[in-house]
Amino acid sequence: MISSSTVVNSVVEKLRQALARGQWRSGDMLPGQRELAEQLGISRPSLREAVIVLETLGLVRSMPGKGVLVLDADAAPPQTPETVAQASLADVLELRYTLEPFIAGLVAQSAGSQDIGQLRLTLMDMREALDSTDSEAGFNAYIAFHEALFALTTNPIFQSVVQQTGNALKQSTDMLRNSPEHLAARLRENEAVVRAIRERNSALASLQMRRHILAEGERMGIALNIPDEHPGP
Fold first, then answer.
1. 205-226 pLDDT, tens per residue?
2. Measuring CA to CA, which residue among 94, 55, 102, 91 is closest to residue 214?
3. DSSP state of 69
4. 3-state secondary structure of 191
5. Does domain 4-75 have CATH number 1.25.40.10?
6. Which end of the chain, C or N, has fewer beta carbons within 10 A?
7. Where are the chain's structural domains?
8. How far apart are CA 185 and CA 68, in angstroms?
């Protein structure tokens, strides 16, 4: 059985290549969801998820009531540190929810034993910090885990977006530092992500990361608005 994450990854790459070839140019509208899903042989929920990724990459923009507009990727204004600094915690979590589960699913498909070993080392650091009640070390290990996960992304087009995710993650540093009592929960949730990656279960890795970010929102008192096809835990 092909996982939903594998399907979405494939659709994103197909659409990205089609845009690069000029099949649809800047200012064009993509075919309607039903037509495009039929062309690609996928479900409409999978297509919607792929469009979300392309929108995050700055390649398209969803226009409510109109469709999906193709953008000029070269003309997209770069995201600056000031832009990230102006984001709210809800903005940060929405960005993380959009990208990190997808990244976890990609890593599950490509990570080698050395890559997984690096992720496990950061988890060991979190465990040691938890045992020694060193909240600052625990915070640093948590950030290091997510940065190590981002670094394993093999698709080059994600690199600039991953950088923004890392910046956004650090935007929530004060909130994370002020909640050391949640380190044990963060550790359990991240361990679940790594177990799924070790099993090369892309769909489960994505699911566990979604659960982690939703739990982070609950711990911060933030309720995220999420697509219907991505229910909570």
1. 999 999 999 998 888 888 777 7
2. 94
3. E
4. helix
5. no
6. N
7. 4-75, 81-220
8. 38
